[in-house]
# Entry
Amino acid sequence: MKRFRFGGMFFLISCILWLGRALAADCPYKQCTCSLQNIMCNELGLTAMPQITTVVNTYFTIAQFDINNITTVPGGSLPANLSQISFIRNPISFMDLDAFDGSANTLTTLTFFGANFYTLPDAFLHLNVLSWLEISESIVKDWNDNVMKHIGASLNTLSIENVEMNTWPSWMQYCTNLTDLGISGASIGDIPDNGLDSLVNTAQNLELSNNSFTKIPKAVSKMTAVKFLGFQANKISDVSWLPQNAKLESISLFGNRLQDSKQLSTAILPYVSTLNGIELHTNLLTSFPDLGAFTLINELDFRRNKLIDPNSGSVPTGLVDLKLGNKLRV
Ligand SMILES: *[C@@H]1O[C@H](CO)[C@@H](O)[C@H](O)[C@H]1NC(C)=O
Ligand SMILES: *[C@@H]1O[C@H](CO)[C@@H](O)[C@H](O)[C@H]1NC(C)=O
Ligand SMILES: *[C@@H]1O[C@H](CO)[C@@H](O)[C@H](O)[C@H]1NC(C)=O
Ligand SMILES: *[C@@H]1O[C@H](CO)[C@@H](O)[C@H](O)[C@H]1NC(C)=O
# Structure
């Protein structure tokens, strides 16, 4: 009991010390709000980086500049020692080479949405521990091989959405540590057979939705660690290259051109004891796949298919929610 009370007292003192430190740490930008470890410069109508009072920083770790009109990030405009920076909805078109230098060895997470750079900025060459990069709705076309070579090995998550990209990037070979990869809303139609080799044993989530794939690429068949595959909103009719040495938990295939339920049944057999979700609505299936043995699946949606044969295939025994929506009576 005594020890417990002592522990409580210690906790209280820690809190007071921590609060004291928090209050003592001045917000590095007068215009922004700082709270806990966060620097928040969102929605201030900024057209340039806010005026910084000092780059010296041992306290704040997260800086957000979301929903402004910032176009340029000059050197010395960011506090040092940050771990996360986000520039969501800013038309950033230029960054000085030393823009991130104070955080070269601390910055792990970087988010851009609506960036206006055509080439990935060389400032990224100075980031040594970047593990999360997200770039959406950008005009970027030149992914700057030198940059990808530099950050590729430390990236765990790479998320690219709604950019113009119509062939599989060769710089993917440098991404040897990815657990999560998403390239969505591009117009990629295929992956070279060796195009995923750098990540076949690390990637757990692969999302290539809203592209132009007509089949699951053969490169995918080599994946061993993948748990989630997202190929929704493509033009896929052939799934025979689904990975046979992986334990998929979830697969999203809605919005494709799947027609061959027998091929699908065979391709997903290796996941019979792990798969808990499969999304198949909005395809061209005329018959049901064999899902009877998939005991972890409890929801199925077959709406917007062309199902005509109610006696085909099978549904899991544990199913609690079945959506048909076809002109089928079962
Ligand atoms: C950015 O600038 C444009 C043009 O001046 C303006 O219409 C828009 O509201 C601004 N956006 C923000 C988030 O300040
Ligand atoms: C960054 O943090 C370290 C350790 O907390 C500190 O010693 C250093 O002065 C900080 N750098 C700057 C420029 O604030
Ligand atoms: C790979 O990622 C892990 C964390 O998932 C990290 O600990 C390791 O340092 C990374 N490797 C490199 C070379 O950055
Ligand atoms: C699909 O990608 C296009 C760009 O290629 C984009 O305009 C559209 O919003 C995306 N759709 C969805 C649902 O994300």
